[in-house]
Write a structure and sequence with these properties.
- This protein has four helices and 15 strands.
- The protein has about 270 residues and is mainly beta.
- The protein has one domain.
- The protein has a five-stranded antiparallel β-sheet. A four-stranded mixed β-sheet has the order 5-4-6-7, sandwiched between helices. It has a four-stranded antiparallel β-sheet with strand order 13-10-14-15, with no helix packed on it.
Length: about 270
């Protein structure tokens, strides 16, 4: 098979629910699948922290995305950073890995510093996120273009605590495939925390699309990757989700994104 039509298979064992367009396979118990759209779907990342007093409005905005921004148009993810943990409240959702990713994307965007709350839209710094019409227009521009990659996901439970994920990725432009990387994220919705210290002391914070685990990057040149993820006991199975996105390592451009709900158990 030639470089243009080369299909790269990634098989990954993961965890529970997601957001997106999925198809249940009635012939196989607890198995479901989804394929990305022909148009480009935007990736919207929020870098946030429960220890940051200016972050709750951004968290609320992401949690209540306008109805005109469904999963067929945008895949949202919230990544909680750890560099505010020193001021009195340790964010239970924070991970150093997310801070490192934000720093890398800050370098790609040639930013003098990273900050919270920060939104990235398809790898680009998005300053005026609070202007809904501005964000909607930016996403519409992305959706109006053809996808630069195609993603297929297949999910099946390995047992009650593990989920098998198969991901097929095809990059449209062969010249771009050597720089393309696949990421997989497990996220959780309907999370709530009562903050007792730090800048948000006394507030109850609610979150959606919280990234619990980020896997990757997997080089697109690598034909197969296998992972097995044991679901943490405190993850609410009915509120978990998985997202996949393909990104150019050089400039941060997102070639395509996909999110889907996990298979129904039983």
């Amino acid at each position: 098979m030639n470089a243009l039509s080369r299909l790269l298979l990634f098989t990954v064992l993961l965890a529970n629910p997601l957001l997106g367009v999925a198809a249940q396979d009635a012939s196989v118990k607890n198995q479901c699948s989804a394929a990305s759209a022909r148009h480009a779907v935007a990736l919207l990342e929020l870098y946030t922290s429960e220890g940051c007093s200016s972050c709750p409005p951004a968290d609320a905005w992401l949690s209540e995305l306008p109805p005109q921004l469904p999963a067929e148009r945008v895949v949202p993810l919230a990544l909680h950073v750890d560099y505010w943990n020193y001021i009195g409240w340790e964010d239970p959702f924070s991970q150093q890995q997310f801070t490192q990713r934000q720093r890398r994307m800050g370098a790609v965007n040639r930013l003098a510093t990273i900050y919270t709350p920060q939104f990235l839209l398809n790898g680009r710094d998005l300053r005026h996120w609070y202007q809904a019409s501005h964000v909607t227009e930016q996403i519409a521009r992305i959706n109006a273009t053809s996808a630069a990659a195609q993603i297929k996901l297949k999910l099946a439970y390995a047992d009650s605590n593990r989920l098998r994920i198969g991901a097929e990725v095809r990059v449209v432009d062969p010249a771009a495939s050597s720089q393309a990387e696949l990421f997989l994220a497990i996220y959780e919705n309907r999370l709530s925390r009562q903050v007792t210290a730090g800048e948000n002391a006394g507030r109850t914070l609610r979150h959606n699309f919280v990234t619990r685990k980020l896997l990757g990057p997997f080089p697109v040149a690598q034909p197969e990757v296998t992972r097995e993820i044991v679901l943490a006991p405190d993850w609410k199975r009915g509120d978990l989700g998985v997202a996949a996105f393909v990104q150019d390592r050089r400039n941060g451009d997102v070639l395509q994104a996909l999110a889907m709900p996990l298979c129904r158990e039983g």
